[in-house]
Amino acid sequence: MTAFLQRLARNRLAAAGGAMLALIVLVALAVPLLPLQDPNATATAERFARPLSEGHLLGTDHLGRDLLSRLAHGTRLSLAMGFAAALIAAVLGSVLGIVAGFLGGRVDNVIMRGVDMLMGFPYVLLALAIVAALGPGLVNALIAVAAVNVPFFARNIRGVTVALAGREFVDAARLSGMGNLRIMAVEILPNVLPVIVIALTTTTGWMILETAGLSFLGLGSQPPQADLGSMLGEARAALISHPHVAVVPGVMIFLVVMSINLFGDGVRDALDPRLGAGALTRPLPATVVDRPAPPPLREPDPPALLAIDDLRTEFRLGRRVLPAVDGVSLSLGRGEAVGLVGESGSGKSVTALSVMRLVASPPGVIAGGAVRLDGEEVIGAPFEVLRALRGRRVAYVFQDPQATLHPLYRIGDQLAEAIRAHQPMGARAARVRALELLRDVRMPRPEDRIDDYPHQLSGGQRQRVGIAMALANNPDVIIADEPTTALDVTVQAQILALLERLRRERGLSILFITHDFGVVAQLCERLAVMYAGRIVEEGPTAEVLAAPAHPYTRRLIACVPEPGAGRRRLEAIPGLPPRLDALPPGCAFAPRCHRARPDCGAGDIPLRRAGARAVRCLHPETTP
Ligand SMILES: Nc1ncnc2c1ncn2[C@@H]1O[C@H](COP(=O)(O)OP(=O)(O)OP(=O)(O)O)[C@@H](O)[C@H]1O
């Protein structure tokens, strides 16, 4: 709630709208207590008195009635009508929407077709027809405005409810024996409430206008009772000769509707959790780069195809800065597979995404370092160059292909689209190539599968499609971010074998991100271990696994169960990874390390290299 209010207050227009609305509502509530004249007392001798005339601050109307008093009473009535209509429409519409969306089937059909019929008429005509049938009057105008707005709420809320009704927490509620009514009240309603509030705040102003419109036509409030619409209607005849009589209610309608709309927009933005990080914009197409200057070219030995050099990527969240990647250097030779290992949150994915500037900005910023592909600097390259490299030279395979494949397109079409993004070719040729790719990744019965949608495939098959997508443009480097984590062990082994074969046959370089040493051992000749955004150990896989130098690496390896090794205690690493914005000085692992000494916390510890191995530790397990 506090976060919501803070976000709302940060939006200046919304705050101004809210303040004005609060003032108008307060004055409207206090009307009976204010020393105002009788709004209906006529004095024909004083008709059309100008504003600021004696006894009448805003002047008088055609019957000599005090405009200030009528404005105060009229605003009070219009606000009450508008709010009541909005509330009735919201309650009725939401109930209909939730029931239709949750129960589905015939109930949904009956309710929604009724709603569609209501929406089929222009709303003003519908409101006029309702008032004509019920007779003019305030209550009938209110019923009409509420009725024409029910469909808006019903449709919105039904859409949200349909999505919620299939979610696991609703299934869990059903399994626990809850009845439909209770599930709708306890599980669905709280989840659709923000949508109802948003719809309410953005439509209330509109409903005040509609009720004023009906009164303007003489179908709402009846003389002598004033509301803003009827005041405007009565002023119509003297619009040219005495414009102030129309301007006074007109300005008030403008102020009320504008303040409600500004406030409503602010509430909508503040309630949207996706805007929590202050990101009012969509992520930019490439991560923002804000670095002093790329470090001078340090050619690794042997020359690397992909060289990450002193990379720093941080998340800037208001005043907080999270250094997710803090000076990472890593190289990948042609045809080489390198594993990047570490606990969840150590910065592996952010490192991988930074290579092609794919970290979401805001809040991500590349704050230092360089990435070189075949010696060419990538981070500072113009966006067009970067876009040409993405997918064509460096491709990604992610953990969950379900999330990266479009659910509504056939996989063949998606593959063809990926191919045609970089290679101009006709639809038929692209389909032939897509089929080839599916064969390359050993998709069973590719001719049938090519026309399947992602949901028709198993997890392993989907990941094969993910790999086929990555191969679509014959890249040199594949960055695979936990591609086998969501798969069972046998499928995992097949996918690893596939990657290994592709590497051999195509000379692919693979950066393999995982937390599983078993996987690294199968695929990678070299590995780097990350902790709290830094590389703490690096070296040939076999050597590191046989004799880990950093205590963190040793503890990570000890967490992996070994089949056939007999009964053995699996040692969890005590404590939790540190918060990135509160890293201890010196070694970030020291507070969890059994070998830590006072000097570990004294200052920055460099990554010391010895031959092919490197370790960032003052008291390593073994000296490499
Ligand atoms: N959009 C973001 N905004 C703020 N912080 C972020 C964002 N994305 C990642 N982080 C932070 O950056 C750090 C590194 O995250 P990263 O995803 O690279 O970890 P990881 O090692 O790949 O973990 P996992 O194996 O769970 O994917 C984490 O502390 C994470 O909370």
Automatic annotation (TrEMBL):
InterPro entries: AAA+_ATPase, ABC_Ni/Peptide_Import, ABC_transporter-like_ATP-bd, ABC_transporter-like_CS, MetI-like, MetI-like_sf, Oligopep_ABC_C, OppC_N
GO biological process: peptide transport; transmembrane transport
Any one GO molecular-function label of the UniProt entry: ATP binding
Compartments, record wording: Cell inner membrane; Cell membrane
Keyword terms: ATP-binding, Cell membrane, Membrane, Nucleotide-binding, Transmembrane, Transmembrane helix, Transport
Positions of the ABC transmembrane type-1 domain: 75-264
Transmembrane segments: 12-34, 79-103, 123-148, 188-209, 246-264
One Pfam family from the record: OppC_N
Ranges of residues in domain ABC transporter: 306-557
Keyword Nucleotide-binding recorded: yes
Keyword Cytoplasm included in the entry's annotation: no
GO cellular component: plasma membrane
Membrane topology: Peripheral membrane protein; Multi-pass membrane protein
Family designation: Belongs to the binding-protein-dependent transport system permease family. Belongs to the ABC transporter superfamily.
Protein's recorded name: Peptide/nickel transport system permease protein
Annotated organism of origin: Meinhardsimonia xiamenensis
Top-level taxonomy: Bacteria, Pseudomonadati, Pseudomonadota, Alphaproteobacteria, Rhodobacterales
